[in-house]
Model the fold of this input.
Amino acid sequence: MEPVTLITGGSSGIGAATARALIKQGHRVAVTGRDADRLAAFAASAGAGERLLTLAGDTSDESDVASAVRQVVDTWGRLDTVVANAGFSLPGTLEDHAPEAMRAMVLTNVLGPALLVQKTLPHLRESKGRIVIVGSVAGVRNTPGNLYSVTKWAAHALAENTRLLAAKDGVGVTVVAPGVVDTPFWDERGGCPETTPSLTAEQIAEAILFAVNQPVGVHINHLTMRPAGQVG
Done:
């Protein structure tokens, strides 16, 4: 039976690249996103037909996450892999951030993956599936006033907490922690600087597939990757 994957934040960047790669490999893939138009555009470009399901919703909203999981299982009868990818960063430092913007980032980057774990674990226990949390190099090193870094440290901690909770049930948990990646993530920062070494979304997708494609009984727990030339 074809494996089924759910990816949050899947209409662009790392999420979209991962969805394309998994569809090519034979998965049926559901992707979520807040913007229905962007989801529709991705679906049109992917050309995956009934192998792709797009679900509009907010990853930090419990009812939206529960609904997405329910639709995936109702449509395809199972869930094998979950990729917690949705997230964003604010420009500047916490001295500059509006409190409402900080709240939104913390909810998306921390509560979102936690809700996804909560709603999908029962299904992943049945399939002995895998969870991939897209973290960041910012989740293993601090920079001054970087609240995004705080959220990624929390996401990495969530992954280890989840591993301890679910390893006995055969559920694999992986953090993929990239350095600079040239994706729409940088849009609010004026784009990825041309002089900055960067990875591509497709390269991160390859790392995610490496974790997902491990043989039964093997779990990759943490992958940190930087473009050549990135020191920090």
Q: What stands out?
A: The beta strands are 4-7, 28-33, 52-56, 81-84, 130-134, 172-178, 222-225. The chain has six helices and seven strands.
